[in-house]
């Protein structure tokens, strides 16, 4: 009987391992087949299952998967993604510039979606692109206080502010009552912020890709 249970457990582990290794390649293959356009601005959402990701999801309006947001465009036929993250990069900045393969590297990744900004003409595209490139020279830090300040942003705030510099609006701020430890840390009972999914109902965005693990 002990051997039967042992074989059953081993079999179950092998099944889990098999599917774990085959989920990500399917995502990679789908990304490779994703058709992206030149002179187009994209918003890229990802979701993770870790503690940080789950906390971020609690502040979404509807999307129960997305926990992080980036913005990008095609550069040398590769999607170049700008995003602000809580951990500092190798350049000692909270601004990351990555390709899509690096953006989806978190081991606990369970969600990815790509959205296209509509009504962006060539002039607007060039201005947004230049604004993002210019941000590489800025000393950008993470906005732990969730307050408007120079060069300190959380992920969606960075995108909203940089697009505003090109007179492009994708969402309005959102208010949420907060309690417990988060309220104590931020020293406020109402949070005004830009949700990771705050743009999804905008007429200026269209989802072109979605993957859920």
TrEMBL record:
InterPro entries given in the database record: Papain-like_cys_pep_sf, Peptidase_C92
Superkingdom to which the source organism belongs: Bacteria
Record-given protein name: Permuted papain-like amidase YaeF/Yiix C92 family enzyme
Source species: Chryseobacterium populi
């Amino acid at each position: 009987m002990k051997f039967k249970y042992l074989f059953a457990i081993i079999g179950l582990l092998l099944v889990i391992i098999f599917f774990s290794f085959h989920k990500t390649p399917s995502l990679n293959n789908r990304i490779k087949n994703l058709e992206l356009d030149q002179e187009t601005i994209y918003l890229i959402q990802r979701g993770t299952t870790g503690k940080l990701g789950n906390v971020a999801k609690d502040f979404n309006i509807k999307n129960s998967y997305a926990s992080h947001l980036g913005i990008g465009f095609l550069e040398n036929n590769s999607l170049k993604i700008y995003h602000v993250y809580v951990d500092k990069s190798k350049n000692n900045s909270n601004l990351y510039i990555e390709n899509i393969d690096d953006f989806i590297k978190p081991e606990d990744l369970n969600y990815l979606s790509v959205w296209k900004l509509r009504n962006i003409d060539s002039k607007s595209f060039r201005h947004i692109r230049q604004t993002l490139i210019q941000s590489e020279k800025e000393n950008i830090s993470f906005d732990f206080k969730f307050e408007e300040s120079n060069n300190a942003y959380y992920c969606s705030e960075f995108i909203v502010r940089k697009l505003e510099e090109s007179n492009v609006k994708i969402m309005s701020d959102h208010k949420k009552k907060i309690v417990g430890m988060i309220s104590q840390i931020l020293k406020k009972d109402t949070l005004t912020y830009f949700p990771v999914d705050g743009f999804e109902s905008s007429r200026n965005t269209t989802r072109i890709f979605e993957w859920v693990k």
